[in-house]
Design brief:
Elements (H helix, E strand, L loop, with lengths): L4 H19 L4 H19 L2 H9 L19 H9 L9 H24 L2 H31 L7 E4 L5 H4 L4 E4 H20 L2 H18 L5 H21 L2 H8 L5 E5 L13 E5 L1 H20 L16 H24 L6 H19 L2 H6 L5 H17 L1
Antiparallel strand pairs: 1-2, 3-4
Length: 400
């Protein structure tokens, strides 16, 4: 099996920058640019696994296993029925969800602002810390488990089935199916989050922030380019209003003591007055939201290149014009954000620069390649949902 050297380099970059930033003074602009780019490259490529889940949800079947003579193995009818029942379900964002997202985000943001204004700051942070510690266990387990399985001894890949009697809405289907590696990852995740809860060290904050970014981008689909554009444009105005129009965004970002941001030390020498390191920060939303969009473009590239759905190979080599153009656009937008922030010495709404960069670069790529219609027609939504919408449209036309 051949490996994607840039994907391996992105893993090394994430680990190297995390370790290096603790022992040497890395210019925070370079640290931020390199770390964010590495996270996006790795997460977007792992999102290719969504293509296999989407194919299974559409009813497509993976190739049958071969026997010793190279013939297809016969499968029992019971197995086929079980596979049909266990067909994975996935959700994509709808245009209505995309339109409502900035409103819901505004309500949540203002709610946190009011909480910090009218309640004890330490109590609010304690409640939020407990929540993020629980979510952090899940994120760290999901990130560390597959890593242990791929690099550890073979016994870590052993599958375990455990029956449970919880309602399906709470515990999911019975039995739970997991690997030995997941148990070790869960134990490590619990220990790590207990330590983070007690210390709130910035390096541990970054580990959780990176895991949230990787898991979010890897597992979520925007559905279509148009829905992604609606979401980005809505959040473009959301970010501008809450940063330039009020002090809400900046107040919450500085007050909330949780892994909703990645921290970059400006110097490893503590400030003489406070005894703390001076930090720059980038909110996870400025990585994850554009990351959803970049991941969609990478899967569109895979669709254009007719990359096989089964088995998923995140290291597969194929042309990636849309992903690369949008990634370069994102980098230029982020660099512009940092430049304006440094020149004017004021917080900047990153999406003000990132949204035009991502949308503009992808649209320019489509125009140059003559694939604008194909880009807008590409959809990862389930066929049943599309058929229902078509039926409703036809019914509305008949009424008219």
């Amino acid at each position: 099996m051949s490996y994607n050297p840039l994907l391996l380099l992105s893993y090394a970059g994430i680990a190297g920058l995390w370790v290096g930033a603790q022992v040497i003074d890395i210019p925070y602009v370079a640290n931020l640019m390199l770390l964010v780019t590495s996270i996006l490259y790795a997460a977007c490529h792992w999102s290719l696994t969504l293509r296999e889940e989407q194919a299974l949800a559409r009813g497509e079947s993976p190739p049958k296993e071969k026997d010793e003579n190279g013939n297809d193995k016969e499968s029992d009818d019971d197995d086929d029925e079980e596979e049909e029942e266990e067909r994975p379900q996935y959700e994509t964002l709808t245009s209505k969800d995309a339109m409502q997202f900035p409103l819901l985000g505004s309500a949540s943001l203002f709610g946190l602002y009011c909480a910090f204004k009218f309640f004890d700051k330490e109590t609010v942070n304690l409640i939020i810390s407990v929540y993020f510690s629980l979510v952090g266990v899940a994120a760290l387990t999901a990130t560390l488990g597959p890593t242990l399985e791929s690099v550890g001894p073979t016994f870590l890949s052993k599958e375990i089935r455990m029956k449970h009697f919880l309602p399906e809405s709470i515990g999911g289907k019975s039995p739970w199916v997991f690997n030995v590696s997941d148990i070790f990852a869960l134990m490590a995740g619990i220990a790590f989050n207990v330590a983070y809860f007690q210390t709130k060290h910035w390096t541990m904050n970054n580990v959780l922030g990176i895991c949230f970014c990787l898991q979010g981008i890897e597992r979520f689909s925007l559905g279509t380019y148009k829905i992604g554009a609606i979401l980005l444009v809505g959040l473009f105005f959301y970010d501008i209003f809450w940063v330039f129009g009020t002090d809400v965004m900046v107040t919450v970002a500085k007050s909330l003591d949780g892994p909703i941001k990645i921290l970059f030390p400006r110097s490893l020498i503590p400030d003489a007055a406070t005894g703390k390191l001076e930090m720059s920060l980038l909110g996870l939303g400025d990585i994850v939201i554009p990351g959803f969009f970049l991941a969609l473009l990478l899967r569109f590239d895979a669709h254009n290149a007719k990359v096989d759905y089964f088995p998923t190979n995140v290291h597969a080599s194929f042309p990636k014009p849309y992903f690369h153009s949008a990634l370069v656009g994102y980098g230029l937008g982020l660099a512009t954000t940092l430049y304006v922030m440094i020149v004017f010495q004021a917080a900047q709404p990153a999406l003000l620069y990132l949204v035009p960069a991502c949308l503009g670069s992808s649209l320019l790529c489509a125009v140059v390649r003559g694939e604008l219609k194909a880009l807008f027609d590409y959809s990862e939504e389930e066929e049943e949902e599309e058929e229902e919408e078509e039926t409703k449209d036809k019914a509305d036309k008949k009424k008219d």
